[in-house]
Amino acid sequence: MSKSPLGQPPAPPELNMTFEDAGPPDAPPPARPKKSLRANTLIVMLGTLGSRLSGILRQMALNNLFSVTLVEAFNTAVTIPNLLRELLAEGALVNSFIPVYKTLDAAERRRLAQAFSGVLIAVNLLLMAAGILAAPYLVDLLLAGQSNIDRELALFMTRMVMPFLMLISLSAIAMGLLNADEHFRESSFAPVAFNIASIAALVLLPKQAEWLAFGWLLGGVAQLVVQLPALNRFGLLPTPALMGHPAVRRVLRQMAPFTLTAGARQFLNVYVLRLLSDARLFDSGTQAGYFNAQALFTTVNGLFVVSPVLAVFPRFSQAAAEKKWAQFRALTASTIRTTTFLAAPMSALIIALSPYVISIINTHAPRTAEETVKFLAGAGILSSWSLALVPWALVTVLLRTFYARERTREAVTISAIGFVLEVALYRLLVPPLGLIGFGLSTTISGLLMTAALIVLYRRAVGFPTREVTGHLLRVVPLAAVSGGAAWLIARALPIQPGFILTSIPVLVLAGGAGLAVYLGGALALRMPEVAAVTRRLRR
Predict the structure, then answer these.
(1) Cα–chain center distance at 191
(2) CB-CB contact of 348 with 482 (8 Å)
(3) Quick one: DSSP state of residue 361?
(4) Which backbone phi and psi does 406 adopt, to 5 degrees?
């Protein structure tokens, strides 16, 4: 799978440390009143849902309003800033900034925000200039020697979209400041603003390369601007300044290894794209199906895995800063229970109904051989990826517990080994097994990474093995039964997949029945996660 969760933080103590001396040495700031964790999770999940759904609409608008030549050149162009955005902005920044920020008092937090935003702006200006100058080499790195993409058009658009890196980096600073103080509303819905502005630009601006690139930048501006009023309202709006602060080094030390690992993941993405373009292995249309599957899978993963973990991450950081390790372990167990409770049925239902799920992208049934390949490839890749949803939910949670304790070295090592293993598995499994090789490779690497992270976690602060194992032994079989029920109902319905309007009734009936089986079983087993949902519905 091309997008796998991951991350990392200054040289950690030895693994045989005691509970008392685990975590950062800095004195914690005065405790603040805590907001409802469930409310935070709901806000992040709703923001993620809005972002993913509007992102699918943006992708549909792009595909329907512009020529294939222009779309392919644009996809190539935005690859460069998208590679860099994860290296320097969203993931690396949020996961390294919040743990350090939470250890400071209010005055030092403001100084850190000023110093760090100034450093980030300077770095982005240098990278933007370098990216524009080196664009020919970057484009050649992405395109095959005999490419079916217009190189000159891709080069032109690459240079136009490079300022997006600055916009997304500033937006990530805003997101980190808001999330650290558990203000999730504006930061969670900022990507929705990006998609809405981009869609408006796609619809209203001329259908030319320069305007397509300008619309992308306009979306980046919108994503930053919508967060500024909240920063100002909560007194968090920094004034960027090129000044020193001792905590900046801590943040940068945390970012450096995470950036290296994120870079490895992006090289994995490039490898997968080149693999899919190999005519000896896959027919034309497979890569388009891959992007459709990716859009839908990231929607599910972002909503049911990443969002709950993002909402609880400040609590992890606070507990680690205060060295409350019993609370930290309890929070780890509850977060794993929540994410796997949500991820397991989604995994089973997508596997059972993947042809109907992928049909959401299709405004008409496949009419040509290429469209048929795209549809079948999308369904196959989506189904195989869904096998990895639960293992990577565990990885996502566990890695955040390492970031919160500023224990980057272990997380970096495990993540790097995981990516190397995943590439090796792709090379080993994809040629003989085809599309299912992608999901199997990611599932195997996710399971092995989970095992390694649990071992390191247990040595440092003690892992809640019994609670997590007991939960998974109930959730996974129950999800499998729900997926089987959904599959049987879909098979009984006289409706073929391939078109959004005919597929939605199947998803509602079969998916709803499968979900009802899952929730009914969870109620019978008296699982606290579903009990909490029913209590909220009764209010």
Answers:
(1) 12
(2) yes
(3) G
(4) 55, 40
Statement: residue 195 has pLDDT above 80: yes
Alpha-helix residue ranges (DSSP H) falling in 35-67: 37-65
Region of 462 please: left (phi>0), alpha (psi -120 to 50) or beta: left
- Evaluate whether 213 touches 167 at the Cβ level (below 8 Å): no
DSSP per position, 297-312: HHHHHIIIIIHHHHHH
pLDDT band at 415 (very low <50, low <70, confident <90, very high): confident
- When the pLDDT of each residue in the chain is averaged and rounded to a whole number, the result is 79
> What's the pLDDT at 239?
72
Q: What is the mean pLDDT of residues 94-102?
A: 71
**Among 260, 292, 416, residue whose Cα is nearest residue 359:** 292
Query: pTM, whole model, 2 decimals?
Result: 0.71
Measured CA to CA, the distance from residue 218 to residue 55 in angstroms comes to 15
Residue 20 has pLDDT above 50, yes or no: no
Angle at 298 between CA 494 and CA 386, to 5 degrees: 55
135/133 Cα distance (integer angstroms): 6
List the one residue out of 459, 298, 458 whose CA is nearest residue 386: 298
Confidence of residue 258 (pLDDT cuts 50, 70, 90): low
Taking the C-alpha atoms of residue 323 and residue 430, their distance in angstroms, rounded to an integer, is 45
Whether 15 and 459 have beta carbons less than 8 Å apart is answered as yes
For residue 277, pLDDT over 90 is answered with: no
Spatial CA neighbour of 292 closest among 276, 268, 308, 305: 276
